[in-house]
Design goal:
By secondary structure, the protein is an all-alpha fold. It is built from 5 helices and no strands.
Length: about 150
C-alpha cells in the first residue's frame, strides 16, 4: 500500500477517534438528558469505523494510535462549555452536522485516492454511507427542534 493511501487512512482514523472522543464528552455532559441516544449512536458509529480503519492500518504494517489529535481536546472543550451554558439540546445539532460533513469530505478525498483498491474502497464507502445516514437523521432532528422553538 502506498504512502498516500496510508496517509488518507490515518487521517480518517484520527478523525473517527476525534469525533468519538467529542461525543463521549457530550454524553458525559448530557447527564442522560437531551440528545443522549444520538450521542451513544454516534460513539458506536465512530468507534466501529475507527476499529475497521485500525485493522487496515495494522494490516499495512502501521500503528493505530487511539489518542486522536488536538481536535479531540477541542471537541471535548466545546461540548463541556456548551453543556455549562446552553445544555446539550437541539441547539448543538448545527455544529454536529457541520463536523460530520467535514468527515464526509475526508472520506471523499480518501475514496478518490483509493479508487483502485476495491476492498478498501468498499469499506470506506460503507462507513461514509453510515455517516451520511446519521447526518440526515440529525438534520431531521434539527428541523423538529427549530419548529418547536
Amino acid at each position: 500500500m502506498d504512502t498516500d493511501i496510508i496517509d488518507h487512512l490515518k487521517t480518517l482514523y484520527t478523525s473517527e477517534i476525534d469525533a468519538r472522543n467529542g461525543y463521549e464528552e457530550a454524553l458525559e455532559d448530557a447527564e442522560g438528558k437531551g440528545l443522549t441516544s444520538l450521542f451513544r449512536d454516534m460513539i458506536a458509529l465512530h468507534h466501529g469505523n475507527a476499529e475497521e480503519l485500525a485493522g487496515m492500518l495494522i494490516n499495512a504494517g502501521e500503528t493505530a494510535d487511539d489518542s486522536g489529535s488536538f481536535m479531540s481536546v477541542v471537541h471535548r472543550t466545546i461540548m463541556s462549555v456548551r453543556s455549562l451554558f446552553d445544555g446539550l439540546d437541539g441547539s448543538v445539532l448545527p455544529g454536529l452536522i457541520d463536523g460530520e460533513k467535514r468527515n464526509l469530505s475526508k472520506y471523499d478525498d480518501a475514496l478518490k485516492a483509493i479508487a483502485g483498491i476495491p476492498s478498501i474502497s468498499s469499506t470506506l464507502s460503507a462507513q461514509r454511507a453510515k455517516i451520511s445516514e446519521k447526518i440526515a437523521l440529525m438534520e431531521q432532528q434539527k428541523a423538529a427542534y427549530e419548529a418547536a422553538t
